[in-house]
Design brief:
Blueprint: H1 3-10, E1 13-15, E2 24-25, E3 35-38, E4 55-58, E5 69-71, H2 75-86, E6 95-96, E7 101-102, E8 107-108, E9 113-114, E10 119-120, E11 125-126, E12 131-132, E13 137-138, E14 143-144, E15 149-150, E16 155-156, E17 161-162, E18 167-168, E19 173-177, E20 181-183, E21 189-191, E22 197-200, E23 205-206, E24 211-214, E25 219-222, E26 227-228, E27 233-234, E28 239-240, E29 245-246, E30 251-252, E31 257-258, E32 263-264, E33 269-270, E34 275-276, E35 281-282, E36 287-288, E37 298-299, E38 304-305, H3 306-318
Parallel strand pairs: 2-3, 3-4, 4-5, 6-9, 7-10, 8-11, 9-12, 10-13, 11-14, 12-15, 13-16, 14-17, 15-18, 16-19, 17-22, 18-23, 19-24, 22-25, 23-26, 24-27, 25-28, 26-29, 27-30, 28-31, 29-32, 30-33, 31-34, 32-35, 33-36
Antiparallel strand pairs: 1-5, 20-21, 37-38
């Protein structure tokens, strides 16, 4: 593709020649002639003079480069779009594999691709142009929208509703039973049937080995545009708002509500039955134990205001230190000396005088 064509597709202003052919996107230090690179973090500006790329995507802060510059107000977004243009995903051809198990009562949309060993149960619906990779399982009465990509070993349980353009990465489980038990008088546990449903709205992506549980009653819902990383647990009855971001190993307990644009960083989480306000940010390894106001930024466990947490962290580090008084040098500790008892010398024997 000509660089000028790429610039037009990305909506970037091209500085310098545009008749160069480009084929892929690479990092500044790895790019070769024919590659497009990008600068979105000023930390890496020092690498620009040495890049061998045929073009660099950057904002107005980059003055010069050894190659043409594609000016973008958001270089990171343009970088993502450039990859999509230059390296489109390789999807399988439409059709149903002879090794797939499709119930006669299931509905498969036009242009869908069903791989080997896929199972689609009765009354399930697979939308047009949706791709199911090998070993995916679709439960009874589930509905999958159009242009979805369901990767290998994904389990979509019964009655799940999935919107359009949803991506489920390998081995994700949607609609597994919520963790609900009632304790009997003898201390044993009675399972509470989990018969609610899970709804995944349009343009959601869910990572590998993530579980989204169904509730006993009602629904678990992930709103449009939310993105969930690998190894995340979304418990029964949770509501996740539009464009929310949940990084790897996040855990959200049951019946918690997360408003739109909330960010949970890696290994953070929330207890059950709390409300996280719009735009709140929860950094890594933090645990939310109470409701959060919109745009709150908290840290720690239990999580509280980030500015206060930073102050507390400094005090905590200093609490175990003993500081010397100003102007006085701390004396070095003396070594411990263990005294050993001395032996008393025996008195010399008196000689007898000779007679």
């Amino acid at each position: 593709m000509l660089l000028s064509e790429l610039a037009k597709l990305l909506g970037c202003q091209l500085e310098d020649a545009g008749h160069v052919d480009v084929r892929r996107v690479m990092a500044l230090q790895d790019a070769q002639p024919g590659d497009v690179t990008f600068l979105s973090n000023k930390k890496y500006a020092k690498l620009v003079p040495g890049t061998r790329a045929s073009a660099v995507i950057a904002d107005a802060s980059l003055r010069t480069a050894p190659c043409p510059i594609l000016r973008s107000a958001n270089p990171y977004l343009s970088f993502a779009q450039a990859i999509a243009v230059l390296t489109p995903p390789a999807l399988p051809a439409p059709g149903v594999s002879a090794l797939a198990a499709i119930d006669p009562g299931a509905s498969i949309g036009t242009g869908a691709s069903i791989g080997a060993f896929v199972s689609v149960a009765a009354d399930a619906v697979v939308g047009a142009r949706t791709v199911l990779f090998p070993h995916a399982a679709v439960g009874r009465g589930s509905v999958i929208g159009e242009d979805c990509v369901i990767h290998a070993h994904v389990s979509i349980r019964e009655g799940v509703v999935i919107g359009d353009r949803v991506v489920l990465q390998d081995a994700a489980v949607i609609g597994s039973d919520g963790f609900g038990f009632a304790t009997r008088a003898d201390g044993s546990h009675q399972k509470i049937p989990q018969v609610g449903r899970v709804v995944i709205e349009h343009d959601v992506e869910i990572g590998a080995h993530t579980a989204v549980d169904r509730p006993a009653v009602g629904e678990t819902r992930i709103a449009a545009g939310a993105k969930i990383d690998n190894l995340v647990q979304v418990a029964h009855g949770v509501k996740i708002g539009r464009r929310a971001l949940l990084a790897a190993q996040v855990g959200i307990s049951g019946s918690t509500t997360i408003d739109e644009d909330v960010v949970f960083a890696g290994q953070s989480g929330a207890v059950g039955h709390v409300h996280i306000g719009k735009g709140a940010i929860i950094p890594a390894k933090s645990g939310v134990t109470h409701d959060l106001a919109p745009n709150a930024v908290v840290s720690g466990f239990p999580a509280f205001d980030l500015a206060e947490w930073r102050k507390a962290s400094v005090l905590f580090r200093q609490s175990g230190r003993k500081t010397a008084k100003p102007g006085r040098k701390r004396p070095s500790p003396r070594p411990t000396v263990v005294a050993t008892p001395r032996r008393r010398k025996a008195a010399p024997k008196k000689r007898r005088a000779k007679r």
